[in-house]
Every structure is written in C-alpha cells, then in structure tokens.
Design brief:
This protein is an alpha/beta fold. Helix content is about 20%, strand content about 35%. The chain has six helices and 20 strands. A hairpin with a 2-residue loop joins strand 18 (about 220-225) and strand 19 (about 230-235). The longest helix has 14 residues, at about 75-85.
Length: about 260
C-alpha cells in the first residue's frame, strides 16, 4: 500500500505492561478513526525525518502507521508527546512509501460471545462492541471468548467470519491438560514479532483440535507447546484461534488488532 508523506509510524513495545494504556490513549487521540490506522505486516524500508535529516530506516512487523490525512498539526504533536510518555519510537515519513500493511480494527463493531480475557481487553481499550446481537452482520469481527458456551458444530459455521476465538469456550470440545515449553517457527510473523513469551514452561488446559478436520484444513499452526498447537491463523481472513486461555495479554491484544 502507498503510505503518504507526513504519516506517522509508531513502533510499540508489544511486550510492555503499559501497552493497553498506550493503545487506549492513541485510539482516543485519533478519535477512533481506525480506518486510517494500519498494522505493518512485513519489514519495510521507508524514508523518514530524523532531527531534520532525511534517512532510510527499516520499520518492523506490527508497527502502527497513522495516516497523515486525519492529523492536524496539533494532533501530530500530541501523538509525539504520547510516544515520548510511553517510551515508543516514532517517525514521520519524509516521502510517500510502499509498505505492506492491513487496516487495524476495520470492523464497525466487535461482537463478543462469552466473557473472559479478550472481552475484558475490548472493554479496557474502549472499543465499540455488543454481545451476541451482531453475529450475522458482515461488518463485525467476532470474539468467541471463554464461557461462550456455543456448540462446536455452530462454531464450524462461524469459521468464515473474521474472528478471535479461545476454543476452550466451546461446548462439547475435548480438553486436555498439557505441560511443556512454548515455541514457534514463525517468530517474525506480525502476530508474534516482539513478544517475550518464548521458552516459557507452562501447564495449561488446551482444546483438542486434532480430530476437527475443518480447523485443521483452514488453519496454520503458529505457536506450540511441545507437540501441542496453542495458536493458529485462518490465513484467508486473518482470524486467530487459541486452543487455550494463554496468560499473555499482549498476544491477545495483537490478535485483536491483527484479526479485526
């Protein structure tokens, strides 16, 4: 995508405990005009102004770009102040650049089913949401959280929707207690980049998806606990599936920005 001159690039520290607070303040600052906020998918070289000098820098996956079209000079300065407050790198493009991005939080509303860690994040970030009533609207992104209490067969019919799901919230799905080390072959995937979750030993309960052919056919495994899959992506719509309620808040936040 062509990103125009004077757009702002932010490189959040996704492993920071203050990340939710920063994102909430950023969304409020741009008046929730999320259709002009982009999530970087691949490393990209762009031309920026650094202390009045034009330089080339590489911006990493999962950087955030705010389109200059919605920024007044005052708002640009306020975003700079916000970045300084939270210790986040910020650049302003000195010329138009081609960057592989996707819109962040493009849906008009997040439809929440159940209540757990993801729905709590939706509330914490002050994102527009409703419970259950919007499930058939094409402009929504579904959150299927713990306690969603929907049948596995019903969930299979929702796989084509953009969604983030914790599969332990489904009814009549098998659960197993597993223990092991968290690992991935895809650490530079935009969903996983800059996360500090690797080589951690955990014992958790996971949903057994080994015999669910629809999920196995449509999804790509991203994160493992030894031989057990913990995180998957449905590539054609960027949906993110968790087989367990993982204790990593920043990964859940990234899933919302990436999928919705």
């Amino acid at each position: 995508m062509r990103v125009t001159e004077d757009s702002i690039v932010l490189v959040p520290r996704w492993s920071s405990e203050r990340l939710p607070e920063f994102l909430r303040d950023l969304l409020k600052l741009i008046n929730y005009q999320v259709q002009h906020m982009y999530f970087v998918l691949k490393p990209s070289v762009v031309s920026v102004n650094l202390r009045g000098v034009r330089r080339l820098v590489t911006i990493p996956p999962s950087a955030i770009i705010i389109d200059e079209s919605i920024l007044t000079s005052t708002e640009g300065n306020e975003i700079t102040d916000l970045a300084l407050k939270y210790g986040i790198k910020i650049f302003k493009l000195s010329e138009d650049s081609w960057v592989e991005v996707k819109n962040s939080l493009t849906t008009s509303e997040i439809c929440v089913m159940g209540h757990g860690k993801i729905s709590e994040l939706v509330q914490e970030l002050n994102l527009k949401s409703s419970h259950n009533t919007c499930i058939n609207e094409a402009s929504t992104c579904l959150v299927i959280d713990e306690g969603a209490n929907i049948h596995l067969e019903e969930y299979k019919r929702l796989l084509n929707y953009k969604h983030v799901a914790i599969l332990t919230g489904l009814r009549n799905i098998g659960l197993r207690d597993v223990e092991g080390i968290i690992s991935s072959l895809w650490r530079h995937h935009p969903l996983l980049y800059d996360l500090n979750i690797w080589n951690v030993k955990v014992r958790i309960k996971v949903a057994d998806v080994n015999n669910i052919k629809e999920i196995k056919l449509l999804s790509k495994p991203l994160v493992f606990l030894d031989a057990n899959v913990l995180v998957m992506e449905v590539s054609y719509n960027n949906s993110v599936l968790f087989t367990s309620s993982l204790p990593f808040k920043t990964l859940l936040i990234k899933a919302l920005f990436y999928a919705c």
